[in-house]
Amino acid sequence: MDYLDFILAAQKLGEPRGIPSICSAHLFVLKATFRHGLAQNTPVLVEATCNQVNQFGGYTGMTPADFVTYVHGIAAQANYPLDRLILGGDHLGPNVWQNEPAASAMQKSVKMVQAYVRAGFTKIHLDASMCLSDDPPGGLPPELIAKRTAQLAKVAEEAAPDKNRLRYVIGTEVPVPGGAFVGQETEGMHITLPEDVEQTIGMTRRFFNEQGLEAAWQRVMAVVVQPGVEFGDDFVLEFHPDLASSLSKYIEAEPHLIYEAHSTDYQTRQSLHNMVRGHFAILKVGPALTFSLREAVFALANIEKELFQADQCSNLPQVLNDAALRRPEYWMKYYRGTSEEQAFKRKYSLSDRIRYYWSDPMVQKAFGHLLNNFGNTPLPLTLLSQYLPGQYAHIRGGCLQNNAHDILMDRVMDVLEDYENACSIQGGGQ
User: What is the pLDDT of residue 298?
Assistant: First the structure.
C-alpha cells in the first residue's frame, strides 16, 4: 500500500497518522530530511512548487526532471531507499502566469503538469484558483476553478507513466504566500467553513465526471483548507482545535478524503499533534526548516569570529544580505517598515526570504568558506553552549558528531523531529 493511502486509511480508523511535506530545495535541508527519515525508518515526502520548479526552470533553475534527479542524488548519498520517497507538485496550475490571458496561462499549466507527472511526481496538488489577466475581476467563480482543475487532472491522467500511482490534492484556501502582515496576529485567521469544503468537493467531483475522470476522482485524497494557522515576521497564529472542530468533524463523513494544511511552520509540537488528530494529516513545512538552518549558520558565523582573524572569516551573514540587496524582488513586498526595520527582517524574519538567496554564487562561495574554516575539527564546547545549546546537549549526550556539517543538519532535524512526533501515534505530541 502507498504510504499516503496508509495515512488515509489510518485516519478513517481514528488513528492520528500524518506526514510532513518538505517544501525546500536546499541541499542541507534535504540531506537532513533523508538522514532523519533513515534514522526513523519513515517515508519522506518532498514537494516542489510551481514557482520553484517548472518547465522554464522556476526560481531554482530546475525543471521537474532536473528536480527529480537532484533529489534522487541526495537520497542516494544518504543511502535512503528511493522506494520510500514520495515526490509532490504543489499549486500546479496557472499561478506563475497570472499576468497572462487564460488561454496562454492554462496552456503553460498543461505543459507544467505534463512535465511533473512524466518526471515521476505522484502527489499532485491541482490549483486553478487564481484570476488571470482576462478573467472577470473580483475572484474566480467556484465553478470555473473546479472546471480548470478537472481539465488539468485529465492532462495528468493522460501524461502519467502509471496513472494508478497518482494521488490528487484539490482546493487552495491557504495563507498569504510569504507570511501574514501586521494585524493578523490579533485579528486571527479565517478558518475554512465546512459548507465551503462541501462546495469545493461537490463541484470538483462534478467536473471530474464530466471529463470522464470517475476513476481519477477515487485518487483524490486530500483537500487544502485553512485550519487557522499562520505566521508573520515575528508572530505565529497557533492552531486551536476547538475553533476548527466543525471543519475537522466534516471530513470524517468523506470516506476517501483528509485535509492538507499549508504554512504549518513554527507550530508547537502539541499544536502539530492536534492538527493531525483533527485530520489535517498532510503538514506543509518549508520556511521553518530554512529558518532553523539560517539560525545554525549565523551561530557558526559567530563562532567563526571568535576563532579566526577578521580577514579569514567568511562574513556569510553580510554576504547573504548583500545578495538580497542586489535582488530585492524576493523580499521587498513582504518586508514593510523603515530601511532599518527591513534590514532586521532580512536577517531574522520568521517569513524567511533568505531561502531565495542560498544559490547565489557569492553566497555559495562564502558558505563553502565557512565550512572549510571549520573542516572536521571539533568546535569548542564553550562556544557551542553559547551559540547552539541544543546541539551542545546532543554532542554531550553522544548522539551528534562535533563538526560543523553535522551540526547544521542536526539543527534542521530538530524541526523535523517535532513533525515526526506529531505524525506518529506513539508521539502523542509530548
Answer: 98
Q: What is the pLDDT of residue 176?
A: 45
**Three cell numbers written together for 16:** 492520528
pLDDT, mean over the chain: 95
pLDDT bracket for residue 169 (50, 70, 90): very high
* DSSP codes of every residue in 209-272: HHTT-HHHHTTEEEEEE--S-EE-SS-EE---TTTTHHHHHHHTT-TT-EEEE---TT--HHHH
> Which residue from 222, 224, 218 is spatially nearest to 205, judged by alpha carbons?
218
pLDDT at position 134: 96
Report the distance separating Cα 236 and Cα 217, nearest Å.
Answer: 35
Cell of 14: 481514528
Domain ranges of the chain: 3-285, 291-410
| pLDDT confidence of residue 426 | 62
Q: Which CATH class is domain 3-285?
A: alpha beta
Flag whether pLDDT at 350 surpasses 70.
yes
Rounded-to-integer distance, Cα 320 and Cα 30, Å: 20
3-class SS of residue 168: strand
**CATH level 3 topology of 291-410:** GI Alpha 1, domain 2-like (1.10.400)
What single-letter amino acid sits at 283? L
Nearest to 95 by CA among 66, 140, 63, 128: 128
pLDDT tens for 317-341 read 999 999 999 999 999 999 999 999 9
Closest CA to 91 of 43, 54, 120, 36: 54
C-alpha cell recorded at residue 278: 483533527
Give the Cα-Cα-Cα angle 40, 119, 104 (nearest 5 degrees): 125
Decide: 146 and 103 in contact? Cβ < 8 Å.
Answer: no
d(CA 390, CA 331): 30
Q: What does the pLDDT look like over 206-247, one tens digit per residue?
A: 999 999 999 999 999 999 999 999 999 999 999 999 999 999
Longest dimension (CA), the chain: 69
Q: Please check whether residue 331 is in contact with residue 324, taking contact to mean a CB–CB distance below 8 angstroms.
A: yes
Please tell me the distance from the alpha carbon of residue 265 to that of residue 384, in angstroms, as a whole number: 25
Instruction: Output the pTM of the full model.
Output: 0.95
